Structure formats: C-alpha cells, structure tokens
Amino acid sequence: KSSLCPYIELDPYTLAVPARKYLVRSLYFDSLDYQSYNEKLDGNHSRFKLRIRSYSKNMGADTTVRVEIKIRLGSKTEKHGSLISAAEYSDFMQHYHWNNPTNPVLIEFERNVHACILRPKVLVEYYREGFRTRDKEDIRVTFDHHVCSAQTKTLFPQHAFFRPHNPHQIILEIKHRDQQPDWLKAVVQEHGLKIQSNSKYCQGIEVTQSEFVNHTLRV
After folding, report:
1. Is 15 in a helix, a strand, or coil?
2. pLDDT tens digits for 29-45?
3. CB 54, CB 75: distance < 8 Å
4. How many whole angstroms from its chain centre is CA 107?
5. What is the CA radius of gyration of the chain?
6. Which residue, among 130, 124, 126, has the nearest Cα to 143 in the 3D structure?
7. Inter-CA distances, 23 with 13, 124, 159, 192, 208, Å
8. What percent of the chain is helix, strand and coil (3-state, nearest 5)?
9. Contacts with 67 (C-beta within 8 Å, 6 or more apart), sequence order
10. What backbone torsions phi and psi does residue 85 show, to the nearest 5 degrees?
11. Where are the beta strands (DSSP E) in 55-111?
12. Is 54 in contact with 157 (CB distance < 8 Å)?
C-alpha cells in the first residue's frame, strides 16, 4: 500500500465513513444443484453469478440496494447493476418478481432466477478499503478486510452466525479496463504479485455448508 500511495487516494465511499472501511454485504443466488459454484470450481470459460448487494447491516426506508449480474468471459469480468429501493427488494424476495421493470438488468435478473431456478444460498460480508488513482484513471484498488459468510436467505437477517473465510488475511484487488500503466506494472513486479483466483462466493459456500461440499467431493 505504501508503494501505491504516490499514485492512489481514498475513494469517496471510504472517505465517507469514520473507520475508513465501508461495509459490503452480498446475497448470492445459485441453482438447486449449485451450478455457479461448480462452474467456478471447474474453471468454465463463460459463467455468470447473480447477487443482491447492500452497504448497510439494517434495512430502513432509505436503504439502497443494488441488483447485480456478474459475467465472466475468460480472464475478463463484466458487472451490470441497478439500484433499487428497500421496498422493491422486499417485494422481489417474496415473489421473485419485479413490479413493471423497465431496467434491462432487473429484467435479465428475474429471467435467470426463473429459467435456472435460482435461490439465495449464502450471505457474504466484509469491510472494504477502496482507492482510486489521483489522476482519475479507470483503475480501482481495494483491500477487503474481515471477509465472512452466513447461511441465510436474506440481506438483512435478524440472527445470523457468520463464519470467517481466512482469518487475519486481507484481499487485494486491482481492477482496470485497459492495459496497466507503467507505474502499476512496476509496483506489481516489485512485490512479485501474482493473479490468484479468490471467489468469495465459493469460500462462503465452503465455510457455511461443509456438508454439501464434502458430499460433492465424494461424488
């Protein structure tokens, strides 16, 4: 982080919270036979995940929720999202249907939920320390702390037992659309950083539903 400091600064979301780390909470959907989980383990070239995300522990009238479709095409990742209200989230979770949606992300989200019979499988939570480049390049650097998961079917469970993924470890992610600039290449090379797969969803399944994972390995 010290090596990156001349080139990056805290993003507005991180600056807005006193602890300089903001909450990220994601509810992941999967099929009855855990197709997304198995496709990730198998390293399928093309795959997608559905999740609903919030940045709050509790749901209130002004709570904002984000619906996301994450698409993986080889080494590239695309993320499409749409913001919804807490009331819209609650209605959808009762019937898995949006009321008169016009946003293409919501339409596609609902289509996949019904076509693939997707249901909530695990809730992943962590605290993110986010950075942007000082010259506003299309580059984002994040450090994710205290990653943990709970087996629940809602974003805002009243009672949930969260299990840590890898205690005392922090996840570094560097995200960019175009080629890495020279300064970023130099920092990556200086510290010997390597690309490593790190699916928070798969880890969440493994720490909260070990009986399913063990059965899958046996089969």
Report:
1. helix
2. 999 999 999 998 887 87
3. no
4. 20
5. 18
6. 130
7. 10, 11, 18, 29, 20
8. 30, 35, 35
9. 52, 53, 81, 82, 83, 84, 105, 106, 109
10. -85, 165
11. 64-73, 76-85
12. no
Burial 101-115 (b: 16+ CB within 10 A, else e): beeebbebbbebbee
Identity at 123, one-letter amino acid code: L
Structure-token pair, residue 127: 């605290």
Residue pLDDT, tens place only, 60-85: 988 989 999 999 887 788 899 999 99
Token pair belonging to 61 = 């009238």
149-167 as b/e: b if 16+ CB within 10 A:
bbbbeebbeeeeebeebee
Q: Calculate mean pLDDT across residues 130-154.
A: 95
For residue 84, report the phi and psi dihedrals to the nearest 5 degrees. Answer: -135, 165
Q: What is the mean pLDDT of the chain?
A: 92
Question: CA-CA distance, 166 to 157, in Å (whole number)?
Answer: 22
pTM above 0.85, yes or no: yes
